[in-house]
Write a structure and sequence with these properties.
alpha+beta; about 15% helix; 6 strands; 3 helices; three-stranded antiparallel β-sheet; SH3 type barrels
């Protein structure tokens, strides 16, 4: 028992010799100004979607009163907006500027919507498609526009147009003449 009493007194005495647990607040200054701290990433504002991502100029017309522009979408075939310079915004879309060009498909239109601006051009894929050479049919009761017009000088004969002769594909190939078929002997007719 005496041994147990001796161990108890030594352990109580040893507990007093250990230093007290230090408060973590004493390291706060080092943490706030540490050269090894991880840099916090700057959060970028959420990107607003581009309102004119799929838009293009379908038509543009200039008149003395006001200019007219039709914008369309390449992704939504039902989307068409008819904008004018003399009218107000249409569904939030408005014309900010038009850069006219004498070349086909080179006109640029700057539009705005909700404070954002975008410059649109003609859809080059549509312009590069070759247009079919079909005459436009006349309206009912109207003469077709492709009729031959009378000559300017009725007394002078108009020159005949140059017409090329027909070119044969294979001039060496002989003309095929069918041979009459005779039924085989013993066949009924």
């Amino acid at each position: 028992m005496s041994i147990l009493a001796l161990i108890a007194t030594v352990s109580v005495r040893g507990a007093d010799d250990l230093p007290a647990k230090l408060n973590f607040d004493r390291y706060k200054g080092m943490l706030d100004h540490s050269p090894f701290a991880v840099a916090s990433a700057i959060v970028a504002p959420a990107a607003t979607p581009n309102f004119a991502k799929d838009l293009y100029v379908a038509n543009a017309a200039k008149s003395p009163e006001c200019d007219v522009v039709t914008i369309a979408s390449s992704s939504d075939k039902e989307f068409k907006k008819y904008l004018t310079t003399c009218g107000g915004p249409v569904d939030g879309y408005a014309i900010a500027n038009i850069e006219w060009s004498d070349k086909v498909g080179e006109t640029k239109v700057t539009i705005s919507k909700d404070g954002q601006f975008a410059t649109l051009t003609f859809n080059q894929a549509v312009l590069s498609q070759q247009m079919p050479n079909r005459p436009i049919p006349p309206a009912p009761g109207q003469q077709p526009s492709f009729q031959q017009k009378p000559p300017l000088n009725p007394g002078v004969a108009a020159p005949t147009p140059h017409v090329r002769a027909t070119i044969q594909r294979n001039p060496q190939q002989q003309q095929y003449t069918p041979v009459p078929r005779t039924p085989p002997p013993g066949a009924e007719e």
